[in-house]
Amino acid sequence: MTVQDAATVGDLAGRIRPDFTLGVAAAAFQIEGSLTADGRGPSSWDAFAEKPGAIVDGHSPAVACDHYNRTDEDIALMQDLGVDSYRFSLSWPRIQPGGKGPINQQGLDFYDRLIDKLLKAGISPMVTLFHWDTPLPLEHDGGWLNRATAERFAEYSAAAAHRFGDRVAQWVTLNEPVSVALQGYALGVHAPGRRLLFDALPAAHHQLLGHGLAVQALRAAGVAGTVGVANVHSPVRPASKRLADGLMAKASTSSSTGCTPIPSSWGSTQSRRSR
Question: What is the DSSP secondary structure assignment for residue 212, as one 8-state letter?
């Protein structure tokens, strides 16, 4: 973000309605760096980033924005922007390096400090539990293709809720689960880099199952705030009036806009119309 961008956002913050929440967002793997600091374990994206050509210009996530060491500076930048809310993701492998079993207290401590500093700065924290960085041991066992990952995700979510639920009122279980299934498992352009095409569908199903189990875990831990999924919607218009184009556009739109909202809202992969 440039100084000019910051000035524009700052001016906007002074003109918008008082009941409008102006926020910014980031993901742990994209900004934190410090991939081995304080007990963090490897993730699916750590491994994917090591593949030649996987990351544009060969950039390394080892430092990224160095947010792990520059938290105070980053919060000060948010204050300068005048934002009310910050959505950030917890690094699952930083909190639970093996994807199951022991919790890394140093990982929890980092997010504890971050949340407290945000609140002190007048910025409301919104926590995303999973933004694509599956612990590598789970990925070796199939990742989201394996139903057990949904159960492990619920256990990790419970640990996060018990630690942060007293200060965090807004939770996101999954960030763009369709992107994980499509780009990560079907096409292989994102981690874990698998190219399974339609055989990737279980990855979408198991993420949705993980969402439901995580919601139950959060509520059981006493979280009373909002819990949802961050979806990505890409409506597609047909290129022509040809039937084939219309059918393809409908199928593409359905995979993007219906894959997550219908099951997470209605508790079933069947639409109301088809019941």
Answer: H
Domains and CATH numbers, the chain: 3-165 (3.20.20.80)
Q: What is the DSSP letter of 64?
A: T
CA angle 220, 266, 87 (to 5 degrees): 60
Length of the chain as a residue count: 275
- Across the chain, what does the average pLDDT equal? 91
- CB atoms under 10 Å from CB of 213, counted, come to 19
- The token pair at 155 is 């256990």
Yes or no: say if 228 and 206 are a contact pair by the CB < 8 Å rule.
Answer: no
CA distance 183 to 273: 29
Say whether pLDDT at 51 is over 90.
yes
Residue pair 238/261 in contact by the 8 Å Cβ criterion: no
Structure tokens at 165: 């639920």
The whole-number pLDDT of residue 273 equals 44
Give the global pTM.
0.89
- In the structure encoding, which two tokens stand for residue 91, read together? 């690094």
CB atoms within 10 A of CB 84: 15
Q: Which helix (H) or strand (E) holds 230?
A: strand 226-230
- Nearest partner of 182 among 199, 170, 163, judged by Cα: 199
Distance between first and last Cα of the chain:
48
pLDDT of residue 8: 59
**For residue range 70-100, what is the model confidence (pLDDT) as tens digits?**
999 999 999 999 999 999 999 999 999 999 9
Strands 23-25 vs 85-89: parallel, antiparallel or unpaired: parallel
DSSP states along 121-142? TT-EEEEEEESS--BHHHHHTT
Token pair of 102 as six digits? 């022991």
Q: What is the largest CA-CA distance in the chain?
A: 58
